[in-house]
Each structure stands twice: as C-alpha cells, then as structure tokens.
Design a protein that fits this description.
Elements: E1 2-3, E2 10-11, H1 49-58, H2 61-70, H3 74-100, H4 104-107, H5 115-142, H6 152-160
Antiparallel strand pairs: 1-2
Helix pairs in contact: 1-2, 1-3, 1-5, 2-3, 3-5, 3-6
Length: about 160
Amino acid sequence: MAYCSKCGNQVADGVGFCPQCGQPQSTASQPAPSAQANPGAGAAPGMAENVAGLLCYAVGWITGIIFFVIDKRPFVRFHAAQSIVLFGGLHVLIIAMTIFTGGGFLFGGYGGLGGFGIMLMLVWVLELAAFVLWILLMVKAYQGEKFQLPVIGGIAQSLAGK
C-alpha cells in the first residue's frame, strides 16, 4: 500500500487521488513509512520524516508551530504538537516565574534565602529540565521513535489527530 504525501493516509495501489484529501497520487508505489526499518522511508519529497521530527524541537515551540502548519504527516504533526505543548507551556511558566522574581534585586531575592531566591532556583531547575528534554526529544525524533511524554504526549496526540 502507498501513503499520501500530503495527509499520510493509506492509498490503494493504482489509485489516482487520495480518498481522504484529494491529492493527486503518482503511479509509482511509495513504500510504507516504517520507523523501524528506515526512519526516513516514505517521506514526502524534500525532507525525511525523522529530520522533520527533529526540527520540530530545534527552536522549541516556534519550529513546532511552523511544522504543525506546513507538514501533514502524522509523525511530524505529533512531534510538532508535543513541542508546542511542552516548550510553549514551559516558556510561559518560566516567564511568569521570572516576572514574579523580578523584584528580587530589591528584596534580596537573587542572593537571599527568601521566597524569591527559592523561586529563582526553581526557574533554573525548570530551565535545566527543559534543556535535557529538548536534547532527548530531538534524539528520539531523529531515531524515528514516537516518544510520548506522560501527560503532554496525550495532549499532543489529541492536537495532532490520528
């Protein structure tokens, strides 16, 4: 069976148009996308699916939005949605916490042991966790794995559809 290069839907061999989206299909049969055999197999012309999945995380939620809008392959859409939910949420959380501790200089928050100092340490821990997740998710996407984070992965799956 071939797969549509636009929406990723299975298309019977010899069919001229995708029954899902109407995209014209080439007469040559495309191999089924298999993450186990070859992560880049069955990808749309131009960019392998695993490379597009990696790039969904490259600049955090920004590239997640770009790939979510332009790429319709289910693997790429999932990684783009996961990037948006994870890094977008962390970005908003870190900005809010940093604004909250912004008065830290006035109240001794950056050097003191008060609540603002603890909040700033928590911001640093979140930034370190975001960096580790960023590397892990890029590696897993490049390996062709659909690595799903516990809560965020479910939200991303519902956003990506299929």
